[in-house]
């Protein structure tokens, strides 16, 4: 395939798949290219460089990359410079360029600060591959974040995973757990707030494993960091995800009771309700210890919304194990959840286990689980009707004049936006609930 233009790309497009950490990385990749004088291509415009920031978590997600690479070919038969970044890049490395020769750059999630140099090599006709996991964090090499107005911003504070759940690729694609330094995070948060962010979501594959030393040299956990960020003037809301049950300290649970800007929402994946399966998954928590954390979280913050992730059809999962998953869902009462069919991933221990579950069994289990979870999120929304709460407006709705924002419990709430703007915090009464969102009635503007 012909690459065009052969050198000096001036415009770019970044497409991110997968988790919110990839969304964050995608933003920083855009900022990095912008700092090198490139501009983002507009909607529908051809870009000289296309960065596909990929996800390897399940087979389907990973396969998407190859169809997307194919779609980059333009009507005249040329292609842009294609850079594959993210977790597929890390997992498959140079193999991607062999399978899809139009790919000019392969760059892993810990090496993307080197993207401009790699793109320059690709522009000279080389295939540039960099899947290093350097000891010095990429964050030390990225440009300062430019001021960009956005009411809600992501901020990665922790990367990688040492947990090695037997089904999961993340420890291999993202590397070992590292925590960004306290001062760097506070500084980035301050810059985001100065740029207009009113809400920050702290991100990490194991965000609650974050540790660091504060400005006085005292060791802190995530709760200490949250308390420091709560003191930033102008920051109204703090969220964090994703947490692992084993790193759920009492300090963090208490922060849900004490810190006004910490939203009453906890994403705490359990994966399965069967302690036997949890052992085989190497989750290092049990059904009971998970339920006990949920109970403590509800004592600290009675209205806290709980969300989770589930895998059905893990190797060896019996009907009884699956019933245990349904029953932990009933006991926990989730406000929201993600559920997946187990997908065997190359190089993970579970892919080699006996007793892989038949696809039709997985389908049936997933349907039953999703029906129950949908029922629960509808019940959660219905129970919110009549409540008064603050909504942070994030985007326009489909109907003219409508604005959509998030409740403290992360529900989408739409309301008549007359006299209001994106970024406003508005106190509303929740007046009705649909399956995916609620309607709110403005009571007063809390802050503009
Ligand atoms: N660090 C987080 C989430 C990581 S990936 C945690 O520990 O919970 C996001 C979700 O993808 C996981 O919670 C899990 O439910 C799902 N997942 C990961 N690997 C999977 C696999 N091989 N098959 C199906 N789902 C998977
Ligand atoms: Fe994957 Fe488990 Fe690590 Fe989560 S804790 S990223 S599921 S290995
Ligand atoms: Fe996917 Fe990598 Fe995130 S595998 S879920 S993009 S950490």
UniProtKB/TrEMBL annotation:
The keyword 4Fe-4S applies. Residues 10-124 form the MTTase N-terminal domain. Its EC number is 2.8.4.3. Binds 2 [4Fe-4S] clusters. One cluster is coordinated with 3 cysteines and an exchangeable S-adenosyl-L-methionine. It catalyses: N(6)-dimethylallyladenosine(37) in tRNA + (sulfur carrier)-SH + AH2 + 2 S-adenosyl-L-methionine = 2-methylsulfanyl-N(6)-dimethylallyladenosine(37) in tRNA + (sulfur carrier)-H + 5'-deoxyadenosine + L-methionine + A + S-adenosyl-L-homocysteine + 2 H(+). Residues 147-379 form the Radical SAM core domain. Pfam families: Radical_SAM (PF04055), UPF0004 (PF00919). GO terms for cellular component: cytosol. Residues 382-444 form the TRAM domain. GO terms for molecular function: 4 iron, 4 sulfur cluster binding; metal ion binding; tRNA-2-methylthio-N(6)-dimethylallyladenosine(37) synthase activity. [4Fe-4S] cluster 2 binds at residues 161, 165, 168. It is found in: Cytoplasm. NCBIfam families: miaB-methiolase, MiaB/RimO family radical SAM methylthiotransferase. Catalyzes the methylthiolation of N6-(dimethylallyl)adenosine (i(6)A), leading to the formation of 2-methylthio-N6-(dimethylallyl)adenosine (ms(2)i(6)A) at position 37 in tRNAs that read codons beginning with uridine. Belongs to the methylthiotransferase family. MiaB subfamily. This is tRNA-2-methylthio-N(6)-dimethylallyladenosine synthase. It comes from Flavisphingopyxis soli.
């Amino acid at each position: 395939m012909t690459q065009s233009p052969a050198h000096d790309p001036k415009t770019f497009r970044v497409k991110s798949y997968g988790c919110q950490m990839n969304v964050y990385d995608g933003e920083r990749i855009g900022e990095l290219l912008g700092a090198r004088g490139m501009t983002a291509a507009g909607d529908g415009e051809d870009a000289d460089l296309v960065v596909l920031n990929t996800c390897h978590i399940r087979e389907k997600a990973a396969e998407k990359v190859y169809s997307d690479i194919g779609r980059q070919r333009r009507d005249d038969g040329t292609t842009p410079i294609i850079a594959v970044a993210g977790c597929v890049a890390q997992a498959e490395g140079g193999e991607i360029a062999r399978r899809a020769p139009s790919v000019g750059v392969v760059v892993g999630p810990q090496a993307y600060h080197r993207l401009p140099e790699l793109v320059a090599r690709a522009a000279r006709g080389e295939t540039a591959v960099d899947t290093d996991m350097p000891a010095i964090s990429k964050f030390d090499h990225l440009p300062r974040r430019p001021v960009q107005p956005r009411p809600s911003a992501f901020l990665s504070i922790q990367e990688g995973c040492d947990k090695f759940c037997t089904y999961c690729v993340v420890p291999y694609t993202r590397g070992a757990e590292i925590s960004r330094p306290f001062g760097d995070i506070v500084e980035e948060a301050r810059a985001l707030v100065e740029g207009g962010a009113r809400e920050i979501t702290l991100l990490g594959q194991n965000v609650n494993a974050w540790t660091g030393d504060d400005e006085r040299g005292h060791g802190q956990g995530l709760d200490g960091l949250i308390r420091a960020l709560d003191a930033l003037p102008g920051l109204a809301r703090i969220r964090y995800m994703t947490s692992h049950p084993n790193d759920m300290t009492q300090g963090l649970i208490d922060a849900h009771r004490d810190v006004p800007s910490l939203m009453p929402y906890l994403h705490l994946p359990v994966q399965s309700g069967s302690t036997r399966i949890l052992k085989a998954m190497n989750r290092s928590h049990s059904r009971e210890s998970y339920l006990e954390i949920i109970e403590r979280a509800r004592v600290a913050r009675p209205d806290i919304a709980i969300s989770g992730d589930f895998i059905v059809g893990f190797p060896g999962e019996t009907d009884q194990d699956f019933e245990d998953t349904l029953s932990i869902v009933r006991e926990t009462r989730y406000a929201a959840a993600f559920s997946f069919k187990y997908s065997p991933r190359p190089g993970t221990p579970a892919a080699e286990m006996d007793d892989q579950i038949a696809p039709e069994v997985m389908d049936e289990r997933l349907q039953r689980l999703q029906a129950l979870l949908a029922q629960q999120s509808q019940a959660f929304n219905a129970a919110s009707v009549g409540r008064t709460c603050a909504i942070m407006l994030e985007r326009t709705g489909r109907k003219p004049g409508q604005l959509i924002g998030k409740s403290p419990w992360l529900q989408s709430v739409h309301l008549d936006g007359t006299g209001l703007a994106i970024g406003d915090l508005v106190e509303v009464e929740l007046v009705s609930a649909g399956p995916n969102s609620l309607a709110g009635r403005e009571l007063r503007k809390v802050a503009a």
